[in-house]
Amino acid sequence: MEWGLVGAELLAAECAVVIVIDVLSFSTSVDIAVGRGAAVLPQRHSDPDVIRAAEAAGAVPAGAREGRGPSLRPASLTTLEPGTRLGLPSPNGATLCAAVAAGPAVLFAGSLRNASAVAAAALDASAGGPIGIVPAGERWPDGTLRPAIEDVLGAGAIAAGLPDRSIEAELAVAQFEVARQRELADVLAGASSGRELIADGYAADVRLAAQLDTSDAAPRLRDGFLC
Length: 227
Fold this sequence. Notes:
10 strands; three-stranded parallel sheet; alpha/beta
């Protein structure tokens, strides 16, 4: 288990499978979209041509979080039409997925919602090879990594379904087990990222992200899309 973009690039070079976890909100949004029969094109947030790139790939570009259409907000995707191909940039989860996609590792997007399904699918896809878990984290204003407790919990929920865990993954499982003794919705609402989203009016997104194992989707990158 390694953090952020550097960790994703490191594990992508060493592992058969890499699981990127961005609970608030990219991975949760991907789970909801894929669960509705859609596919998601992960895009680097820093790409100045992100809209054109989505359209070139045959995807509908995601809109602004505060808009009415599909966006990075999980709640905006709960009525997404089956068969939709959505271009979805984010500074953390999508950017990490785009980086891993450049290498040979099998890529999954994991969250609390689909933790058990992703763990099982990753085990199957790994064929006994190493599995890398990457909590995406957030970013400080200067661009440096800000560890995020919600991503630790997502990593722990997924790692709980995997054997032969590293000490980092084992400790993430321990934190997840402590957190699940409380209401996960309360834990996420009290986390820094959750408080920020709630203050901006996005409490519904935090509640959706806190739902443990409510989905059997295991979004895997195929032909550039998580589906």
